[in-house]
Amino acid sequence: MQALDTQTTIAVIGAGAMGSGIAQVAAQAGHRVYLHDQRDGAAEAGRDGVAKQLQRRVDKGKMQQQDLDAIIGRIQPVANLDEVADAGLVIEAIIEDLDIKRELLANLENLCTGDAILATNTSSISVTALGAGMKKPERLVGMHFFNPAPLMALVEVVMGLATSKAVAETVHATATAWGKKPVYATSTPGFIVNRVARPFYAESLRLLQEQATDAATLDAIIREAGQFRMGAFELTDLIGHDVNYAVTNSVFNSYFQDPRFLPSLIQKELVEAGRLGRKNGQGFYPYGEGAEKPEPQTEPAHQSDETVVIVEGNPGVAAPLIQRLREAGLTIVERDGPGQLRFGNAVLALTDGRMATERAATDGTSNLVLFDLAFDYSKASRLALAAADQTSEAAVSNACALLQKAGVAVSLLADRPGLVVMRTVAMLANEAADAALHGVATIADIDLAMKAGLNYPEGPLSWSDRLGTGHVFNVLTNIQNSYAEDRYRPALLLRKNAFAQKGFYS
Ligand SMILES: NC(=O)c1ccc[n+]([C@@H]2O[C@H](COP(=O)([O-])OP(=O)(O)OC[C@H]3O[C@@H](n4cnc5c(N)ncnc54)[C@H](O)[C@@H]3O)[C@@H](O)[C@H]2O)c1
Hints:
- Pfam families: 3HCDH, 3HCDH_N, 3HCDH_RFF.
- By secondary structure, this protein is an alpha/beta fold.
- It folds into three domains: about 10-185, NAD(P)-binding Rossmann-like Domain (Rossmann fold); about 205-210 and about 215-290 and about 420-505, Orthogonal Bundle (N-(1-d-carboxylethyl)-l-norvaline Dehydrogenase, domain 2), CATH 1.10.1040; about 310-410, Transcription Regulator spoIIAA.
- Helices cover about 45% and strands about 15% of the residues.
- The chain has helices at about 15-30, 40-60, 65-75, 100-110, 125-130, 165-175, 195, 200-210, 215-225, 230-240, 240-255, 265-275, 320-325, 355-365, 395-405, 420-435, 445-455, 460-465, 470-485, 490-500, and strands at about 10-15, 35, 75-80, 90, 115-120, 140-145, 155-160, 180-185, 310, 330-335, 340-345, 345-350, 370, 380-385, 410-415.
- The chain has an eight-stranded mixed beta sheet with strand order 3-2-1-4-5-6-7-8, with helices on both faces. It has a seven-stranded mixed beta sheet with strand order 10-9-11-12-13-14-15, sandwiched between helices.
- Bound molecules: nicotinamide-adenine-dinucleotide.
């Protein structure tokens, strides 16, 4: 399907944060753009805001003044809705309210030409429900941009029950022509990103609630081992707890209170306290004048005279860590075994979702210390460790010393199932697998959405393939056993792929 050509006029209704950004994107792509807002002066203010943003680029020498003038010249604020009648694509980005959006769509249907496409930027309202009152719901499609629209590459093209395939394909092709990375999604709660990302916040919140460690340490582990841009607490402080908590509640309630999406009491309390994050100076962290962000818990230097690491069995994804230890001057001895490292009296193993205490008792392993997943063990600057209750202090110290010899900072956590990165990634992959099984989007589009919409270092399903579906399935099964909670039940597709010994892409 062809993209709309630049001769097609685009209309954007609602000139707030999103509408202004979308108008900028369309104008930068060469379209004439009508910008309308019911508030007097808001459309002009929206256009001025775009000019201000672009002026910064001109000042930095990244854009020519004449290009700025041309883009701004193409954005035309219009006072009356009637003036958008000849637009070929109308994108609404007004207040998130079903009835108000329905009324706007009814008005647009009456005044726009029969072949005009109507698109909604809603983040949480069903496109099917929005189309239900329309004469021709087949011409309504979701065109879900991310904030800030000019910078974020992802556009979810959301198909309601009645949306015509041709309409969705035209919007998809148009988004591509505008330099975006569009993905198709069916109109299900949270679409792709706002659904699949829930565990990213939920698992850190849960670990904080269970006093695994503090917020700054969890954030540091997610960044330095997981290679996510921000930890869950930094990110929710930035998003605003009112907004993030509302999205979680909306997804939870839309899925008939499936425990997988259970909101967090800690976040509820922050909202009740008015600690909304950066925007009002206090969230998990303080942001006022002179406020200092707390340091993550990092183990002091541990000494060990040991020089030999015995690698028992296949280290799997942790193989680059062995290489780092070798490069640090340690002697590596390989022999058969269950996939673990011995350093002096310490036995180190990658978490399989069981608590160290439970695993040590069940497998009869003395002095067990579990380590967390890293996105890339050859680069991770920090790793989380958790020791079994039965493990001696000397063994914990040896385990810390071993990682420190490889230049890895160690955060020692209380013994909780699945540690931090492993648990988060397993739950992200689980949610992604469930979304794929339910036909919300394709496997490739889900991974693309999580990378382009949230800057994840890797799509959760391709990450799961790298870890081995069997390992992810084990991790989830073990976490589910630990809590006896439905929240951690492995998704059917993950379970099936684990038994078929295949990945999502193979
Ligand atoms: N802010 C985000 O991060 C984000 C991200 C993706 C999608 N969205 C969605 O985009 C939409 C807009 O969000 P926003 O953050 O830009 O909101 P906003 O409050 O910044 O802007 C909304 C604008 O719509 C105008 N408006 C309200 N009712 C109107 C009507 N009937 N006709 C014309 N104009 C009207 C308001 O005057 C306001 O200027 C919502 O549906 C929201 O869910 C928001």
